[in-house]
């Protein structure tokens, strides 16, 4: 191998053009326009030269360290040039940016999300609050401090949004791990610990007192899509999304069947939900048919169905603090205070899951007949056709 370390850092910079040996196969090739470190070695009886970088970027010390590592590879019977190429390819495969992994995770979960995740805007918290700052960071480099710094501005001010963003990010990190990437699966939990307990107190959606519902119902009298949609929302106690997407094909007789994928919950396990329609609800549906487009009872002015903001904005313009979703609470309070409906039936009215998995496996009923009686009484109360509240028991 000959003498080692023949050159000095000071001498390297003043060497004339040509090839100069440092020993051990390390050379510096000097030209008029620059200099290049080169390692000469023999592998499998073949002489090879490997560039180690230019003198402007790699010092003599660094060149010697790189040469030493390469000699170890040669000693192990491998070609350091091929090993370097292999490692670069491997590193390139492992540079998965967070935005790419997040999009892949979303695509993988779409099948189990309501409306392919669009209706519930599963991706939105990531898109708005995570990816603008962290999207171009390799997912393997992401740590709790990055996450903490990103979510800190909204951790207390927009607590629920921040919670969703952190939850979605945790799912993305687990997806990255499933892809075989080296990620810190505890990063989101560590970030949560760094962020501390949120000072924000969750507030229930404002619900109109059930005693005030009849007067509001009567005010919805112009026969417009918005008025009719709100009327049916009140009468059925369903959530906004299935109400807005109600289709004529879903109604048979006095039963409206909401597809399982439109219900809240996991798309692949949520069963269809039957909603008994009161006499008043059937009347509202019949009136809404004149607005129907493509079978949808509540179409928007341009295309599709009315948005989830339509009914809410109407109530805001009416200077009401209550929100459409709150009518579910109005109905539930009315059932509790003015009827003797069993708990299981009352909860099923709202489409809530009652009991554990084993209990549900044996209890196959959806209490349709009992719910039909409850909803008929509710329809009479809302339209002021029934007896006094205390006589509805």
TrEMBL record:
Keyword list (alphabetical) reads: DNA integration, DNA recombination, DNA-binding
Q: Which domain of life is it from?
A: Bacteria
A Pfam short name: Arm-DNA-bind_3
Q: Which residues form the Tyr recombinase domain?
A: 203-375
List the CDD domains: INT_P4_C
| Listed PANTHER family | PROPHAGE INTEGRASE (PTHR30629), PROPHAGE INTEGRASE INTS-RELATED (PTHR30629:SF2)
Q: What is this protein called?
A: Tyrosine-type recombinase/integrase
């Amino acid at each position: 191998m000959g003498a080692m370390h023949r050159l000095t850092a000071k001498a390297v910079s003043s060497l004339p053009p040509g090839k100069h040996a440092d020993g051990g196969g390390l050379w510096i090739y000097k030209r008029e326009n620059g200099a290049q470190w080169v390692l000469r070695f023999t592998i499998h009886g073949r002489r090879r030269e490997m560039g180690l970088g230019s003198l402007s970027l790699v010092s003599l010390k660094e060149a010697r360290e790189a040469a030493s590592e390469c000699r170890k590879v040669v000693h192990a019977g491998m070609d350091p040039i091929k090993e370097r190429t292999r490692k670069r390819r491997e590193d390139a495969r492992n540079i998965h940016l967070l935005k790419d992994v997040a999009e892949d995770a979303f695509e993988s979960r779409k099948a189990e999300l309501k409306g392919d995740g669009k209706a519930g805007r599963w991706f939105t918290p990531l898109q708005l609050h995570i990816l603008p700052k962290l999207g171009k960071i390799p997912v393997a480099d992401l740590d709790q401090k990055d996450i903490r710094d990103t979510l800190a501005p909204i951790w207390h001010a927009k607590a629920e949004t921040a919670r969703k963003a952190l939850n979605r990010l945790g799912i993305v990190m687990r997806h990255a791990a499933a892809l075989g990437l080296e990620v810190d699966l505890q990063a989101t939990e560590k970030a949560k610990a760094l962020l501390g307990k949120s000072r924000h107190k969750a507030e229930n959606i404002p619900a109109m007192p059930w005693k005030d519902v009849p007067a509001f119902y009567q005010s919805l009298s112009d026969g417009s899509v918005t008025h009719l949609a709100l009327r049916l929302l009140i009468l059925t106690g369903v959530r906004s999304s299935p109400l807005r997407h109600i289709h004529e094909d879903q109604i048979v007789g006095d039963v409206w069947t909401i597809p399982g994928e439109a219900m809240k919950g996991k798309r692949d396990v949520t069963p269809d939900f039957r909603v008994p329609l009161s006499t008043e609800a059937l009347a509202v549906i019949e009136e809404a048919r004149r607005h129907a487009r493509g079978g949808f009872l509540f179409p928007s002015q341009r295309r599709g169905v009315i948005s989830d903001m339509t009914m809410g904005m109407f109530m805001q313009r009416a200077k009401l603090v209550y929100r459409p979703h709150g009518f579910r609470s109005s109905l539930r309070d009315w059932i509790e205070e003015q009827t003797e409906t069993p708990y299981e039936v009352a909860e099923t009215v709202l489409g809530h899951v009652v009991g554990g998995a084993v209990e549900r496996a044996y209890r196959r009923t959806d209490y349709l007949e009992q719910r039909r009686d409850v909803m008929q009484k509710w329809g009479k109360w809302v339209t002021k056709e029934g007896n006094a509240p205390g006589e509805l028991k």
